[in-house]
Amino acid sequence: MIVPAPATGISQREARLREAELNMKLGTMYTLQSDTRSASDCYTMAIAIFTGYGLVERRVAGLEALANVHLRQNAYDEALKLYSDALQIRIDIGDKVGSAVPLWGLAQVHLMHNHYDEAAKLYSDVLQIGTDVGDRAGRASALGGLADIYRRQNEYDKAVKLYSEELQLRTDIGDRGGEASALWSLALINRLQHQYDDAAKLYSEALQICKDIGDRAVGAGALWGLAEVHRMRNEYDTATKLYSESLQISTEIGDKDGRASVLYSLGDIYLAQSKYDEAARLYDEALQIRTDIGDERGRACILLALADVYYSQDELHKAVKAYSEALQIFKEVGYRDGVSFVSERLAKTQGLQTPMQPIEVPPFQLQPLISDLPQPPPQTASRPGHGSTNSGDFDSFIRSTTEGALSNLASAPLFSRVMGGANATARGSTTAAPSESARQQQPSGREVKCVQAYNRDIVVGCTDGTLIRYSVRDDDTASGDPYSIASLQTVPGGKAIEKIALVPALNKALVLSGGVIHFYTFPALDPLPASIISPLRGATEFAIDETAVQVCNNAAPNQNIPPIRLCVVRRRVVVVYALRDRLSQLKDIPFPNGAIRACLSGPHLCVADPKSYWIVNIDAGEALELMEWSQDQSLPPRHVKPLIAISDPSEFMLAIWTGNGALGFFMTGNGDPTRGTLDYPQHPLSICIDYPYVAALLPNGTVEIHSIVTLSIVAVLSCPTTLQPCLLSSSNGGYLVPSLQRNSAIKPAVIPLLNPPPSTPTKSRSRDNPTSPPSGSGLTPPSTPVPQPSLKRSVSGRSTKSISEASYSRSGTLVAGLRGMHSLLPSTLGSQIDSLLESNRMQDAVDLLSQVREKLEKSTGVVDEGEIREVLLIHQRIAFRYLFATSFEDAGKHFLLGKTDPRLLVRLFPELRGDVITSSEELAVFAGVVDQARAFDSIDSIIRNYHPHIQPSIEEATPTVELRRVLNMTARDMLASFLKKSRDNVASLVVDPLDVGKVQKIVDTTLLKLHIEENQTPQMMTLVNMSENIIFSEVEALLIQNHKFTVLSKLYEKKGDDSKLLEIWTKVVDGEWKDPALANPLPRIKELLLETKDRVLVQRYGIWLIKHDPEASLRLFTTKDSKRGMKLDENLILRALRAADAEVGEKYLEHLILVRRNAEPTLSTLLAVSYLERIISALGKPEVMESWTATLTKYSKTRVAPSDGSATSIPLLQYLATLTELEQLPTRIKLCLFLQGSNYYDLEALRGRLEGVEDKNSFPLETAIVYGRIGKHDGALSILVHSLKDSTTAEAYCTLGGDVIPPKVASAVAQQVGIEAWGQLVTANSPGYGLATAPGRGQTTAGRSSSARAPVSEDTKKALISTLMRVYMKGGDGMAQETAQLLNAQAINLDVVDVLDSVPSTWSLNVMSSFVSRSLRRTLHDHQEGLLIKAIASAQNLDISDMAFEAMREEGAMVEEALDSGTEAGDDLNEKQPFGEDEFISEKVPYLDDETHFVVQPIPIRLRDSRHGAAGSLDSSKSTLQ
């Protein structure tokens, strides 16, 4: 576990202790989640840290917590040890109170072991401690434990009494959780006594307490208990509901144990209802959880339930397997009741299994491998004695007749349980074995002494010390031996080779010859240098750990291979070595009697000395004598020697001579007998185990084969007399044997997909059974050669190894003769299946195939590709048989297991395949199914071919019509199931990788069609969401026809066809198309229109949207602005919006003008008129009119004026903005601001509409604005002054050049009302306002000019002020004060003469005095200022003239002037005016430029200024020299 690094300043000790405490807390969390493995890891790390730092109390707490975890896992031995350690520590530290915890745990362990006396004593100790220290909670726990004992012993009265006491204690101390647990226990007893009402009441009380205190874990248990009560009453619906609630809680809180319990109970309900598939599914899920949390006993219980399911389904072989596994677990955990119960069920089930019929193909056959050993040249013939076993050498004879007895434990195929056959001989046949005289009569030469095989190689040890390696031939041919010599050499010393052992995982071979064990590489058989491993001398026998060799053979390629133990038997000692890259000695075990036979499996070495069999535990160094290998007191025959074989990793088979025959005993590694016994009429020469079979070579030359499971004979094979068999050899991992018959069937053949079936089938069907498929084994290829594509398949993702085009079977047993070898080859799977199919034993064929397949899947090594192909071929053949028999469900299952190309099935449904499969397409299939694949061209023809003979016609008879309908429906269900399961693995079903994409499209498209036919909308949506391979053209019309617009729209969506998508949705909204699953697509239409960039779609469907949701349509059109490149027909949209909703149309019009900056005059006029008409309509209501009239009247009468008498007031617009209760106030303010700010509306049209209003005083401000815009200033000012009494606005009007609303007022009012865009119209269009933010080139502002207006000229201001003055004066004496204020304020802009002419004669002089006096002073000031300026200018001119002439003199230039055209030569010059008016000369004048550089530059000099009459004025931007 990774723990965060401690912060700086924390010592290592503190950091480690924090880590330990964190692990303790994590362990608690994992325990609550039933993650016992993680909890165990955390507690273990914490204990290690506490131990390291000597924290005894924390260590014991960790030990107790870890023990609790093991207790939950049913790992009682580990829990017992931990509790014992914790108890001892508690005792050592004197913690009597704390010792109650481990005591209680120990009691629980003994309770689980059914050791009730020990458990009761421990619980009593806990109870006494709780009584002594006053720990009522501890007492309650102890009482509950004692009650559990009585409950398990069915003493319910005593249990109820103790549970009641526990309940009372829990209640007294306020332990609500403990109270609920006690109630739960009482409810359990009532349920066990079938007192369901009382049980339900108690469970309900416990449940209520759990809800009150929030204890969801115990609450889930209470729900489970209630559900159990209802299940017992057969109230399955109620029980299922309660189980589901409990399951939900357990899942949410992470209680895996509780979840497994509920799943198990739900499975019981389905089992009781005969819903076996559902029950098996739930049991499997519960089994996985029990496996994950390490609950072995729970696993066994679920396996028992699964076995019951299989038993109920008559799948007895599966039931036997499950019962056996459950039995083994119960034995391991020590659950005796479980062992007894399961043993009984297992025996019953095994008794019901169908015995093998002797008429079947025998499970084995002999196939020649090596016809004759290569003999040495005559001059190198073997020394006397090497070719015969008649040398009297006891060890030599034993080894020659029993070599190879080590068994293959896992890799050989499972074979049919059939027995007998054409090549079987009667038991006890007198066929001659190779006798001593026969050996002596053979020509002297090289003979087989021992043999071992693995994978592609056979290693033969000969009597003359020759070591020969044969390798399988890769060419596919029937001529010659299947194996050929790869190497031949002689071992050092040249003595007979007694024993060979192969260790492929370590690439080594061990060879015993002349008492020396030599080490070679494998498979090359190169001697290992002595520097690596030296030969071992003085050996009489050796044994390699066969179980470890098997495990290593099946290891993954990159897996680390551990050392393998090797036992070498010397005269009085067994030496144990560890073999890997080198050899290291581990220990010596004394064995005084010596050994003549030895087999090693794990820690158990089974040896035979000259008298008895022994079991040696090499770990403990202990030996146990089993029995004598000869039970006959007389001297046994010469060939009778001890024989040992390994039947299981911890089990040995021993041969015992009885005097007139032999018995085969099975013994465990501990020396306990197991299974039954085998009876042999003669003592075998050699035995060999290839699980589940044991083969024995008898002296009469026969091989007798028994089943280890049933202990019955399954076959007796006679060896050819020419072979002269002498021994059997077991291959640990198996070796390859060419299977020529299988090769022809698994070769590929090409067939047309849509060609009609041949008129004359290759194999005619039986007349008696017209429904049967083409007869024959299917193992014969078609007569016409066809192209041969590659057909490579795998089983469940298993890795395969291609070995050329030839296919191989794998055998585990060799039958060796003196000079040749045969393979004890399992009958080919194809031949066994054919035999079963011809006997109409379809289920037996399926069972046999399942066994072979299961073994292939479990194999961890590289599997021969031919084996896999044959399994797939047979699956397909069985599938076709089921198909032709219209057992479509079974057919689909086997088509799937056979990894059938989906096109082979889809082609049979013309209405589904459509155009996805064309007539020109071809498909590669196994040659063994060509006839079946071409037998029918459609599923309908299969159904028509399968019918009863009903009159008058099968086409018209009601029963057959209904039968055809049902069968068609079932066939479609099969196809749908097949396609669903294969769609994720198409690549593994298709031969040509280039076809994968196409086949995927065929699968998904056909599957969607099937869902459409079945009206399965959810499945359709799931498929469409997952798949990118549906052929749209194949399903579009079908979806429309079946009104599956939801699915169709999803397809359009994935295709990106927005046009079609919108078309569907709009038709559904309009009611033209109906689909309940597509209830209201309007929101999706809005969303899509907002997302799309297609202008045509936005405009078309946006206008459609207007009638359904104008506001949404407005949002759409206002969102698609020019920034997104969306050019819409705005006028068309505007008309549609206005027609649907005038208010929405007005908003869109505002968008066009204010946002889109449309300068079209008609639009601006339309908007202004729209505002005006809406206000006029509102004013048509008397109450509205009265409200507005009162407001205007109130404004004109209540102007705010300061005490000095100046007539300033709040502008009307600003005043109106504060009156939010007025109807249409925002619209009126919009109108005023728009009229003031826009430059594009028709002023005359607005003027006419305003003047045409019935009540002329209704729109004073609006009329004034329009008057001001058209230049009718007197009218505008008259309204402002006389109607509105708004002198402030009137004076601002003059200052702004005719604008009624000042920019600041517009901005403030717009912000206050929330219509800033309208305020910006005014601020950006006012004279001189907003110049800093004027639009750039090419831009326009909303409804106005491309830039702000130029500042108002002084003349315009003066004219407007004069107009305002006249308007004031028209008001007579009532306006005298306002007039005087204007005159005083604007005196500078008024001509005093004009003012005096306009003043009424009745006005007092006091009104004008201030204005007149100021005007006179200002006039006098201007006159004096003018004189001063003139004088200053004259002086400056004179100065400049002098400077200019001085410069000219310095330059020495002459001035030459041409005479005017009108002046003749000789005319006198006017001395007072020597130059003409405005005449210039050019002179170079030096000066300093801006960068202080001296520059001489010509400048024009005015010679005479006509305006001032003075000469010499400089007319230059540089008025002085610099």
Q: What's the helical proportion of residues? A: 40-55%
Biggest sheet: strands side by side, in what order?
Answer: 1-30-29-26
Biggest beta sheet attributes: 4 strands, antiparallel
N- to C-terminal distance? 89 Å
Q: Say how many strands there are.
A: 35
The averaged pLDDT comes out at 78
Q: Looking at the structure, what is the overall shape? A: elongated
**Radius of gyration based on Cα positions:** 56 Å
Uncertain runs: 1-7, 354-360, 380-443, 757-790, 797-805, 1200-1208, 1329-1347, 1474-1478, 1490-1494, 1501-1522
Q: Give the helix tally.
A: 55
Structural class: alpha+beta
Q: How much β-strand is present in the residues?
A: 5-15%
Structural features:
single chain, 1522 residues, alpha+beta, four-stranded antiparallel sheet, disordered N terminus
List the helices and strands and how they pair.
Elements: H1 12-32, H2 36-52, H3 56-72, H4 76-92, H5 100-112, H6 116-133, H7 136-152, H8 156-172, H9 176-192, H10 196-213, H11 216-232, H12 236-252, H13 256-272, H14 276-292, H15 296-312, H16 316-333, H17 336-352, E1 364-370, H18 394-402, H19 436-441, E2 448-454, E3 457-462, E4 466-472, E5 483-490, E6 497-503, E7 508-513, E8 516-521, E9 536-537, E10 541-544, H20 546-553, E11 564-569, E12 573-579, E13 583-590, E14 597-601, E15 604-608, E16 612-617, E17 622-628, E18 643-648, E19 651-657, E20 662-668, E21 673-680, E22 686-690, E23 693-697, E24 702-707, E25 713-718, E26 725-738, H21 740-746, E27 748-752, E28 800-801, E29 808-817, E30 821-826, H22 829-838, H23 842-858, E31 863-864, H24 865-884, H25 888-897, H26 903-906, H27 910-913, E32 922-926, H28 930-933, H29 939-945, H30 958-982, H31 986-989, H32 996-1013, H33 1017-1026, H34 1032-1041, H35 1045-1055, H36 1058-1069, H37 1082-1091, H38 1095-1106, H39 1110-1119, H40 1130-1140, H41 1142-1155, H42 1161-1179, H43 1182-1197, H44 1212-1216, H45 1225-1237, H46 1243-1251, H47 1260-1270, H48 1273-1283, ...
Parallel strand pairs: 28-31
Antiparallel strand pairs: 1-30, 2-3, 3-4, 4-5, 6-7, 7-8, 8-9, 10-11, 11-12, 12-13, 14-15, 15-16, 16-17, 18-19, 19-20, 20-21, 22-23, 23-24, 24-25, 26-29, 27-32, 29-30, 33-34, 34-35
Helix pairs in contact: 1-2, 2-3, 3-4, 3-5, 4-5, 5-6, 5-7, 6-7, 7-8, 8-9, 9-10, 9-11, 10-11, 11-12, 11-13, 12-13, 13-14, 14-15, 15-16, 16-17, 21-24, 22-23, 23-24, 24-25, 25-30, 29-30, 30-32, 32-33, 32-34, 33-35, 34-35, 35-36, 36-37, 38-39, 38-40, 39-41, 40-41, 41-42, 42-45, 42-46, ...
